[in-house]
Amino acid sequence: xxxxxxxxxxxxxxxxxxxxxxxxxxxxxxxxxxxxxxxxxxxxxxxxxxxxxxxxxxxxxxxxxxxxxxxxxxxxxxxxxxxxxxxxxxxxxxxxxxxxxxxxxxxxxxxxxxxxxxxxxxxxxxxxxxxxxxxxxxxxxxxxxxxxxxxxxxxxxxxxxxxxxxxxxxxxxxxxxxxxxxxxxxxxxxxxxxxxxxxxxxxxxxxxxxxxxxxxxxxxxxxxxxxxxxxxxxxxxxxxxxxxxxxxxxxxxxxxxxxxxxxxxxxxxxxxxxxxxxxxxxxxxxxxxxxxxxxxxxxxxxxxxxxxxxxxxxxxxxxxxxxxxxxxxxxxxxxxx
Length: 337
Fold this sequence. Notes:
Rossmann fold, alpha/beta, disordered C terminus, 9 strands
């Protein structure tokens, strides 16, 4: 009898982690993670989007990390994959868990990177652990939705539904899980169909075979553990973050596509305007998933701000593109080439 094809048989292989495990935090909760790159390299913690899982890293990230001497660690937030379900009172609470996570792995200093929904957690870590974080990178990250630092855009509506999401997060997460599980049986075909109707700015990235593997792995992993984690993210994003972006002291760089249809460009520009001495880079024509093809630029920024680290190689040359610092005008045209 012929072996029945599985989803894994249809997909391009994902990079294989050196290690996948769970860090148990004080009190018994745990955070799952996957390690890539140089096992003895300088650590870079990569925070996935919403939804996401420990293997949601750029497909070329592990090979680049190994060549450049970085220890790339994908960290799962509560309720995803190996991680214990939990809802933070505010985004800033994440820093405490990362401090304990880093202590458990023996990480003294490290960089942090986050895509989309991982962006707020990058800034929380930079704010909460300034003596340990060497650099922060935010790729299409959502900004604050409430208070005086709320980013402009439709996301300001999120605080209005946060009380309802908070009250219904468990049943809503279970409902979403049951609704999406049947989809995983035809996930490959559904993904191919979506790439035809997705925003034009994202089609090029999403049609890469390796990107398809990353997205579908996330979908299957999320369904195995339930979909309470994405709901928990939305709940926390609708609350005060618990810190001011103006108080961040760590070097931070924002990348954002001007064709991002999910997190408005205004979020990246607005946060850049608040974080002291930060940098901003516009990705012309880039959609929401442009961050998945920026690993070489991200590692270059980290390398630049980690001058005392031991390098096995220099970051690869990047394509010419103008970055904006605080001393430059925020006219969008200044970032185009």
